[in-house]
Amino acid sequence: MKKIPKDQNWHYLKWLGIIVVSILVFGIIYNFDTSLSVLSLILKVLSPIFIGLFIAIILNIPVTFFENKVFRRLTLRNGRIWSKIKRTVSISLSLACFFLISAVLLSYILPKLGESIKDFFNNADGYMQNLTERTRELVKKFDLPFDHESIDFSWGTITSFLTKLIGESTNDVIQTTLNAALNVFVSLWNVILGFILSIYIIASKESLSKLLKGFLYSIASEQRVTNIINVLTLTKKAFEGFIAGQCIEAVLIGSLTFIGMTIFRFPHALIVSFIIGLTAFIPIFGAITGAVIGAFLILLVEPIKALWFLIFIIILQQIESNVLYPKFMGQQIGLPSLWVLVSVIIGGELFGIPGIILSVPLCSVLYTLLHEWILKRLREKRLCRQNATHIPENPSLLTEEEFLSSKSDDDESANTVPTKEKNKKKPQQSKNAKTRKGNHSKKSKK
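Below the sequence we write its predicted structure tokens.
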């Protein structure tokens, strides 16, 4: 294959690009505040696109399930009619399932949740009085340096404090409320635009993939394009695995919490289970936050049961994360706990809750790329076998026989034909043998 000759002016264009990029980097560093404001404006304008891409990743999971699992035979045949309508049918069924599940949950959970919240506020004075008496008893029992008579938890003191605070800064509260309402409206509109955009992305994902590949091959070498596509595929798998895993974990932990609280007769079972299932979407800190909120709600009713609830939720989370979750997921995101904690801390400090949620799959991609790069370097130096998938604890230099044997094992496994394919080939060979025998017998008769 002949190489395409480069343009004669490529050398000058390369240096011109380096100079332009250097000037841009210097300008960004010199005017850092202005650059941040411009970047935030760009992100604000492009936020519907980012939301659409995120929703498209989520929507692609059920769409792929319907195409490759439910309608597998039709997809394999790929007839004229089915090839035109399979994406529309899969998207429609995915949206119908989403809205149906949402309607069922809202129609069942919201009334029960509303009743629990209403009962909680109706009995709030009794809860506060009970909490005050329990606290005074603990202060007397342990001789703490507090005046137990001055301890008073009541909604009256809380509401008077809030009223005084609002009265002192009425203008600020009104302005803050208006800004919050405007931000909610803008966010809701961006979500609606992103949802519509995600449907178009899923409907035309093959054409978008061809366009992206063509663009990459037109500006970069084949090896670089292959590496970029591998990274994008890995990122897609990481995001899909993380989203599916978090949804399964939220449903599992919420359902098991409700069943356990009902069996042990903990108060506010539905509202606490809903909070724990909702906070389970946030890695690491979500479980802690949900457990603390649930324990506080139970503490207002029965303080002793709050301690038992914390013990119950800790045991339940250990069983769910180590036994049930791996069985349902099969393979987890593949990221050690230390890396998860570091990614959550950094993502939360930079971008808040969205950073916490998105930092884990991104860190998983970086961890996988680093792991593969280390294995590649170890193979080049013959410090691990050719077919090694994990970094050895004590890398040692392999002999030539060990290295060649590991390589030959890979070659043999690659050249082996599956038994199903062999069984498929045998009938064809027997048919060919029969036809040859028939032709030979005809010739002999002639």
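The chain has a mean pLDDT of 75.
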